[in-house]
Design brief:
The structure holds three protein chains of three kinds.
Chain A: H1 2-13, H2 15-37, H3 68-104, H4 106-121, H5 124-134, H6 140-167, H7 170-177, H8 182-218, H9 229-239, H10 249-277
Chain B: E1 4-17, E2 20-33, E3 37-41, H1 48-56, E4 63-65, E5 70-73, E6 76-77, H2 83-92, E7 94-97, H3 101-104, H4 111-122, H5 127-140, H6 145-148, H7 158-170, E8 176-180, H8 188-205, E9 208-213, H9 216-222, E10 225-230, E11 233-239, H10 240-245, H11 250-257, E12 307-308, E13 314-315, H12 320-323, E14 335-336
Parallel strand pairs in B: 3-9, 3-10, 7-8, 8-9
Antiparallel strand pairs in B: 1-2, 1-4, 1-5, 5-6, 10-11, 11-13, 12-13, 12-14
Chain C: H1 3-28, H2 33-45, H3 49-59, H4 68-80, H5 94-129, H6 134-149, H7 152-166, H8 186-223, H9 226-233, H10 238-250, H11 252-267, H12 270-275, H13 281-290, H14 294-322, H15 324-327
The chains are: A mainly alpha, B alpha/beta, C mainly alpha.
């Protein structure tokens, strides 16, 4: 409870963190309530095609005369799910591998580190795109999972070195001397020290996942739902020629602006968290 | 003092650190005789380093020299020079041997380059001439130019680097050389080797030297005059011989007593109780009074002036010299220093 | 194991892993594309099916009738002889596609890296030198945040729409105007440059902020070093202190990052090249993926892995070469 209160205090007093939090809450609300307020109407109305912003369509209309804002809000849900599932799965894999390597040491550690080294050297984007494209992964949760398959190595290495540096700290030595079981040491002593590191990286992976997913969808190789932000951009740029229609700029720019704001919100929130965990910065 | 190369007049230097104001050099008036080696002695944090940085004009940006201060160098006020004139003064007239030569040399430039660049920025001289001058200087500090000129700093030993720093200080044949703890990082044998080189240079070239140190034995080895600094103020200024025979200020006395003796009798070695003062919140009155064994009530209220005794020694303590019977003193003989 | 030996074994294992992945990839694909190709050869060239199948098998460097390990050995042997197979859709050897595409990718990324590195490090250096100017640092921080918040391909999209479509200052697609003959003639080289500017700017704008921040951090550290104080005490002119002491030492950490940055640019170049239809490796990757051209995909995967591995080794070499302290 005390922790929550401090967190709340920091988020309130740090301007960047406040902005980030509010924006994130906004995105969550948009994902939950947006579709209720402005349901996506997939009927095409070609007379309303590529309209600029108006009272009726705040962000204009797409190539088939459908409301841009409604699609964007509908797509928010997917983006949040991808970011969240990718980050969560990455964290889970990285935790398991990182702690395993860090706590066992010896040849297990060397082998795992070798695997991590290789994963980090392999070109990530192409392999990810091949996986996502060729195995026709459609729903946002499994898409996040695929991203996680390629994002964990860096984080696992980080967790391992955090553990190695914690291992030699006095309080861990004491726990070992007192013959406490390994699991207890892990949960009781290591976790509180790892949490800040994990939290910051959670947000970092979420940001990367959004960029990667939008990019892959922009290539047009993963046919996710058409209102997904990356898919909207793909339709706008390669399929419908919206880039040549001045009136369609709202339709074209809106997803980009949304992505940038989402990225910014995560960055700002992360900087608030950093301050929360590092009292020196307060 | 008629033949002073350098005279400080009411020199005060302030620092602004996180809203706190530090005063590491406070109202110092002092003259340094030409051709002499003067040691400025004090613990770390007594203001020695700020003093040298102030002399060279390389203070950090958060510092400020009091407008009433004057630094006379050959009867020219350094503080009134233009920035460009001040730059030309540096190293041309006064140079410095820095401590911890590991970090004092740029890791990515060859030694030769670091020796000659100051020549190139001060004189109209060809590169070849500058290089041959650097070789002469390196030989003066007993280094082989062939080996050292093209080396990078990390390829030299600590003692060699320190000698490079001395050669560097000699490059422009300055009138004044500041020696900032020149031997702290070195082992004893190397220390004495460096002292030997420095004394050799002093005897043959006769430049004025200012040795900044916390090491009394270094001062005893090299200096003809000793200045003791504490809490940003001058405590005592005396010829070395007289000083080591009988220090007049209680702080000087404490310093000497804290020094190990030859017979290794640790019982007679007594450190001074307490800590050096916080430069942002100095004690009232005499800055040394909280640690002083001879403290009197008046010490807490009045800042003692640096007074000149009949024999020319200067001391900022009215109590202790009177207790000692050596030159018989009476108040009328004590007069303020008039710079 | 010595660190150097470890690096090399790690590099070798990585390349092996990439070949293994691409080997598995082609076998995991749905549909019997060998049969498809053989039938095509039968109809177009009137060959008997058995001969056609054999030709198809050697074209794709793949024979499903052998045991799996033999398949891998023959596949790997083929690679060692430079046989990357034939592109399934372009009908030319994959190696010749790569040889055509690679120079464009290298040229584009080199141009972009040159721009972003030189501009970024210069800005970072100035920012550290003039650290008391609040306006300047506020402006630059804002720019750095913004450039981190927009992925490079979206910057590319914006550039494309405004400078290409709206203002018509720059061409939208390709690497040069096909009405010119490639070679050392001015119109062709001008056309190449004209086509490269927008995609190069996309990379540059998205990476320049990173270089700037890295350089500022490095230069701020150098400014606190004692040798900088010594340089000042030596009465050196500001120009020399700035160039010889500050810049020379501050540039070291960013320079060691160059090789890695170049490699990750190349392996991440899919989106920007795709967006501008710039005929480099990344463009053909998008093409191969969209058209299910597995042999081409394999080849590109191997080439990008090789680039990454070489860049990593190069980064190590550069690091020990550039910093005299590491050498000895």
């Amino acid at each position: 409870m005390n922790l929550l209160k401090t967190l709340f205090d920091v988020l309130r007093h740090n301007r960047k963190a406040t902005v980030g939090t509010l924006l994130l809450v906004g995105f969550v609300l948009m994902a939950l309530l947006g579709p209720l307020w402005l349901p996506v109407n997939l009927d095409s109305d070609y007379l309303e095609r590529f309209q600029g912003p108006s009272w009726q369509h705040w962000l204009g209309t797409d190539y088939a005369g459908r409301d841009t804002l409604a699609q964007l809000m509908h797509g928010t849900r997917d983006m949040l799910l991808i970011a969240f599932s990718a980050a969560l799965a990455t964290l889970a894999i990285a935790m398991v591998v990182g702690t395993w390597a860090g706590l066992s040491g010896g040849w297990v550690d060397s082998c795992l580190m070798q695997v991590i080294d290789i994963m980090l050297t392999l070109p990530r984007f192409p392999i990810m795109a091949i996986f996502a494209g060729l195995f026709s992964i459609r729903d946002p949760l499994s898409f996040g999972g695929v991203l996680a398959l390629f994002y964990w190595p860096g984080l696992a290495r980080g967790i391992r070195s955090q553990i190695l540096s914690l291992r030699h700290k006095e309080f861990i030595e004491v726990s070992r001397l007192m013959n406490m079981p390994m699991r207890h040491i892990m949960l009781g002593e290591l976790m509180p020290n790892l949490v800040p590191y994990l939290a910051i990286n959670f947000i970092g992976v979420a940001r990367d996942a959004i960029v990667a997913s939008v990019g892959i969808m922009l290539l047009g190789i993963v046919p996710l739902s058409a209102s997904n932000w990356g898919m909207m951009l793909n339709m706008a740029t390669t399929q419908t020629g919206a880039i040549y229609v001045p009136n369609a700029y709202a339709y074209l720019l809106a997803p980009i602006v949304f992505i940038v704001i989402f990225q910014f919100a995560l960055m700002a929130f992360a900087s608030g968290l950093e301050e929360f965990f590092d009292p020196r910065l307060r | 003092m008629t033949d002073a190369l350098l005279r400080l007049e009411n020199l005060s230097i302030r620092y602004q650190v996180r809203g706190r104001q530090l005063l590491p050099v406070e109202n110092i008036s002092l003259a340094f005789a030409r051709g002499q080696i003067t040691a400025i002695i004090g613990e770390s944090g007594c203001g020695k380093s700020t003093l040298t940085a102030g002399l060279l004009g390389i203070l950090a940006s958060n510092s400020q020299v009091d407008p009433k201060s004057r630094i006379w160098f050959n009867d020219q006020d350094l503080l009134s020079l233009t920035p460009e004139a001040r730059r030309r003064f540096r190293w041309q007239k006064a140079s410095m041997v820095f401590q911890a030569a590991q970090t004092a040399l740029s890791p990515t430039l060859r030694i030769g380059e670091q020796l000659i660049d100051t020549v190139l920025d001060h004189e109209k001289i060809s590169r070849a001439e500058a290089l041959s001058r650097a070789e002469v200087r390196l030989r003066q500090v007993r280094l082989e130019p062939e080996r050292v000129m093209t080396a990078y700093p990390h390829q030299l030993s600590g003692g060699m680097r320190q000698r490079v720093m001395i050669a560097l200080a000699l490059m422009l044949e300055p009138e004044l050389i500041l020696l900032d703890e020149p031997t702290t990082a070195l082992d004893v044998i190397t220390q004495h080797y460096i002292f030997d080189i420095l004394l050799d240079l002093w005897r043959s070239q006769g430049m004025t030297m200012l040795l900044i140190t916390h090491d009394l034995s270094a001062a005893a080895d090299l200096a003809g005059q000793v200045v003791v600094m504490y809490g940003g103020r001058i405590m005592e200024n005396a010829p070395a011989k007289a000083f080591f025979q009988q220090p007049l200020h209680p702080y000087s006395e404490g310093l000497l007593r804290a020094q190990p003796t030859l017979d290794g009798d640790t019982a007679s070695r007594q450190p001074i109780d307490g800590h050096p003062p916080d430069l942002a919140a100095k004690p009232s009155g005499c800055v040394f009074h909280p640690r002083c064994a001879y403290v009197q009530p008046s010490c807490r209220n009045e800042i003692p002036l640096l007074q000149t005794l009949p024999d020319g020694r200067q001391v900022a303590c009215p109590i202790r010299p009177a207790q000692l019977n050596l030159p018989q003193l009476n108040p009328s003989q004590l007069n303020e220093v008039k710079p | 194991m010595s660190p150097r030996l470890r690096k090399w074994t790690s590099a070798l294992i990585t390349i092996l892993a990439a070949t293994l992945i691409s080997f598995v990839l082609i076998r995991a694909m749905p549909g019997d594309f060998l049969d498809l190709r053989a039938n095509e050869l039968v109809t177009t060239q009137g060959l008997p099916y058995a001969t056609a199948y054999k030709i198809a098998s050697s074209q794709y460097n793949y024979d499903p009738n052998l045991p799996l390990w033999q398949q891998f050995v023959s596949y790997f042997g083929g690679l060692l002889h430079g046989n990357l197979g034939t592109s399934m859709t372009l009908r030319i050897p994959v190696s010749s596609v790569l040889l055509q595409a690679l120079p464009w990718t290298l040229f584009l990324n080199f141009l972009a890296l040159l721009l972003s590195f030189s501009v970024g490090t210069t800005l970072g250096l100035l920012l550290a030198w003039k650290r008391r100017s609040r306006v300047l640092s506020g402006l630059m921080n804002g720019f750095a945040v913004l450039s981190q918040a927009i992925p490079d391909f979206l910057i590319g999209l914006l550039l494309l729409v405004f400078f290409g479509v709206r203002l018509r200052w720059f061409p939208l697609r390709g690497a040069y105007d096909i009405s010119y003959t490639p070679g050392f003639n001015l119109p062709f080289m001008f056309s190449v440059l004209q086509h490269a500017i927008l995609p190069a700017m996309a990379y540059t704008l998205s990476t320049v902020g990173g270089w700037m921040l890295a350089m500022r951090a490095s230069a701020t550290q150098v400014l606190n070093e004692e040798y900088l104080l010594v340089a000042q005490a030596k009465g050196l002119k500001s120009k020399r202190i700035f160039g010889r002491y500050l810049a020379r030492n501050a540039i070291m950490p960013p320079v060691t990052q160059l090789a890695i940055a170049f490699a990750s640019m190349i392996s991440g170049s899919i989106f920007v090249e795709w967006m501008f239809a710039y005929p480099g490796i990344g463009y053909f990757f998008g093409y191969a993926l969209g058209n299910r051209d597995f042999t081409l995909l394999q080849g590109i995967l191997l080439v990008s892995t090789l680039t990454m591995v070489v860049a990593n080794l190069l980064a190590d070499a550069v690091y020990s070469w550039i910093d005299p302290r590491v050498k000895t």
